[in-house]
């Protein structure tokens, strides 16, 4: 079973919503839980968790990866994300059950390979989450999306214009595939930003969550 660092609701009460943060290849949950630390004061009734991916990273066994990246082609993305999806689905089911919440109380946030996992799992769950946020990522298996989508959730994609790992064009391709499958998609390109997340992107994500969770933007 996956596990990783957590932030309990700052209200001190039970969680009313859950945000799951998925890191990229060569990182761990401690990397992405920092987003939760930034957002927690804005969402005092929200629990945050950032699970470590299931496999040790190929080039640093102290870190993790959702799936192996060797040739970086669409087939590899699809097969890797598909293989890892059941482990993530099981983790989400367990976390929601532990908090007594449903998918409508859930937001999925990913960075890089974590975004691939968010976009692999969310469309295929029996009930859609409240929100999907993808930073510096792309979709795996575009042609599979529309026929396999079960439910829709609002999507925010944020990408650095100077991303040297996953080019910004991948965000546009991902947004187009999602829209073709019936999703409402917002995009934000950050000038001068490489493969990372900046303060403006974090603010946009927080505002998106406020709207998805039924609260006014901060």
Can you walk me through this structure?
With 218 residues, the chain is α/β, with parallel strands linked by helices. It is built from 6 helices and 9 strands; from the N terminus they run ββαβββαβαβαβαβα. The protein has a single domain (6-212), classed as 3-Layer(aba) Sandwich (Rossmann fold), CATH 3.40.50.1820. The chain has helices at 29-39, 74-99, 113-121, 142-148, 168-180, 199-212, and strands at 6-7, 17-22, 46-49, 55-56, 64-65, 106-111, 131-135, 155-160, 185-190. It has a 7-stranded mixed beta sheet with strand order 1-3-2-6-7-8-9, sandwiched between helices. A two-stranded antiparallel sheet has the order 4-5. The chain is globular. It starts with 5 loop residues before the first strand and ends in a 6-residue tail after the last helix. 44% of the residues are buried. The model has no long low-confidence stretch (mean pLDDT 94). Keywords: Hydrolase. It comes from Kaistia geumhonensis.
Unreliable stretches (pLDDT < 50, length at least 5) are none
Oligomer: single chain
How much of the polypeptide forms β-strand, as a percent range? 15-25%
- Write down the overall mean pLDDT: 94
Principal-axes shape call = globular
Number of distinct beta strands: 9
Q: What is the CA-atom radius of gyration, in angstroms?
A: 16 Å
Helix content: 25-40%
* Whole-number tally of structural domains: 1
CATH superfamily: Alpha/Beta hydrolase fold, catalytic domain
Kindly report the CATH topology: Rossmann fold
Keywords: Hydrolase
Organism: Kaistia geumhonensis
InterPro entries: AB_hydrolase_fold, LYPA1-2/EST-like, PLipase/COase/thioEstase
Family: Belongs to the AB hydrolase superfamily. AB hydrolase 2 family.
